[in-house]
Amino acid sequence: MTLNLRLAELIRACFTGIWIESHEHQDALTEIARLCHAENWRLVTWDIEQGVTSTGLTGEPAIGQDPLAAIRSLSTLATENSAALLVLQNFHRFLQSAEIVQAITRQIMAGKQHRTFIVILSPIVQIPAELDKQFVVIEHELPGRDQLIEIARGVATEANELPTGAELERTIDAAVGLTRYEAEGAFSLSLVRHGQLRADVLWEQKAQMLKKSGLLSLHHGSETFAQLGGLDSLKAFCLRALRRQGDHNPVLRPRGVLLLSPPGCGKSAFAKSLGNETGRPTLTLDLGSLLGSLVGESERNLRTALRIVDAMAPCVLYVDELEKGLAGATGSAGDSGVSARLFGHLLTWLNDHASDVFFVGTCNDISRLPPEFARAERFDGVVFIDLPTASQRSRIWEQYLALFGLDSRQPRPKDESWTGAEIRACCRLAALLDIPLTAAALNIAPIAVTANESVDKLRSWASGRCLSADQPGIYLRESQGTGARRRVSRDPTAN
User: Is 77 within 8 Å of 84 (Cβ atoms)?
Assistant: First the structure.
């Protein structure tokens, strides 16, 4: 629903205190002015520089810059048969004054009789406790695809400057999530650089936007599935789920996967390569960066981050080591319930979001997360990535030997129960120290040895509960033997 429609409903219902959250005040004011002109309502605006100015029907000069006087002037704007709106720009800066808060309270109550409305236009929502129940909050949405195409056509005046077909779709995909001002600037920059609109310039601007927020980062990398040894079933599962079959039916849109494994088995590498394989941007959310010192700040940061993610759909959202970021969700941490509230909000978003966002979460210790996190319909699948098999380790050796320019014919160390990260470390040390692989291996302490109990516990938990990353079906661990590998049941009724 557009800003105009929501505002019109609230005014007709006589909500006399309205807070509009917007980063684009000029565009919001333009929409409000159009609504007032269409409805024959009176519109007056205020800001600290120009004071009170009528932009509606009468065109009076500025009345004053005093914020208190601006509020008191609202009573003089009342007319017998029409509504009057006073729009206060960036007024959150003045709500620390008890006198101003009291004046707003009085005007909001009087507005019920006189049909006068206080509209605060601000990039953030900071409502004092005294006014909390008197304001209704609406959001000025970011531009949709149709409006972005309109902006692009306004910037690209020559026929050869605007792409067509699939390239235009990719360019608009890249612009989704930008404000109108940011999109116009990015389109103009693309024309200056390349003489036409290109998606790569839009992604560069989006990366800058995310950097400013400090909550998300846009992953830039060239990782592909070809660089991952194994995980064949997980790759096929996600690629099939991410076909564009659900674009026109939100019910069919994929939700994501939760990846469980010992450290170093390729969870992060898979998440980073998935975006490249499917043509989607990969956004990385660090739960630790959400934590703030003020009461409610952490929860607000998470809401802001998820709103940005929704705006940038279609995309892949990657959250690493969930059990550490949500360590207090079970009530064991002394953080006054912050982790539990973050966890609850994330659960709600995972369950209810309608945007085309594929969530990839990773976890090394599922026992530290509440059981409801992994229930059905939160994810398309909970997948266990075991230590690589002998054939997978061979492929990983070949990949990293080539990457570090090492002789592939030299003897390799005993690598039973090594992870892909440990194979890479061995190759990197061999190249760095100019020593054979067998000598470099003396510096490697495999996770299967240093954390044997944790790995064994993780395998036991995953058996029968998780999908296998290597073969279709449920992961089942063999009960005995130090070299136990997995076997997979393709029959869901099998014991």
Answer: yes
Distance CA 104, CA 46 (A): 14
**Would you kindly state where each structural domain of the chain is located, as residue ranges?**
3-139, 145-213, 225-384, 390-450
Q: Quick one: pLDDT at residue 161?
A: 87
CATH class of the domain whose range is 225-384: alpha beta
The C-alpha atoms of residue 12 and residue 38 are separated, in whole angstroms, by 14
What is residue 328's predicted lDDT score, i.e. its pLDDT?
Answer: 56
Can you give the pLDDT at residue 79?
77
DSSP β-ladder status, 474-477 and 357-363 = unpaired
Collapsing DSSP to helix, strand or coil, 295 comes out as: coil
Position 426, amino acid: C
Pairing of strands 256-260, 315-319: unpaired
Q: What is the pLDDT of residue 440?
A: 94
3-139 shares its CATH topology with 225-384: yes
Q: 115 by DSSP, 3-state: which?
A: coil
Q: Cα(57)–Cα(37) distance, rounded to whole angstroms?
A: 8
Element (H, E) at 46: strand 42-47
Distance from C-alpha of 436 to C-alpha of 448, rounded to nearest angstrom: 23
Tell me the whole-structure pTM to 2 decimals.
Answer: 0.71
Contact 326, 372 (CB under 8 A): no
> Quick check: 259 and 383 in contact, CB under 8 A?
yes
Q: Name residues whose C-beta falls within 8 Å of residue 7's C-beta, 6 or more positions apart in sequence.
A: 18, 20, 32, 35, 119, 138
| Rounded Cα distance, 270 and 272, in Å | 5
In the predicted model, residues of the chain with pLDDT beneath 50 are 56-62, 246, 479-495
Q: What is the predicted pLDDT for the residue at 271?
A: 87
As beta bridge partners, residue 476 has: 487
Q: What is the reported pLDDT for 481?
A: 37
Give me the sign of the Cα torsion angle 11, 13, 17, 20: negative
Cα 171 to Cα 162: distance, rounded to the nearest angstrom: 10
Whether domain 3-139 has CATH 3.30.365.10: no
